[in-house]
Amino acid sequence: MAERVGARASAITSEARALSVVIPTWNGGARFRELLLALASQDVEHELVVIDSGSRDGTAEAARASGACVLSIPQSEFNHGATRNRAIAATHGEIVALLTQDALPMGRDYLTCIAKPFANPGSTIFRLQRRPWQRITAGSFAADFDSGR
Question: For the chain, how many structural domains are there in total?
Answer without folding.
Answer: 1
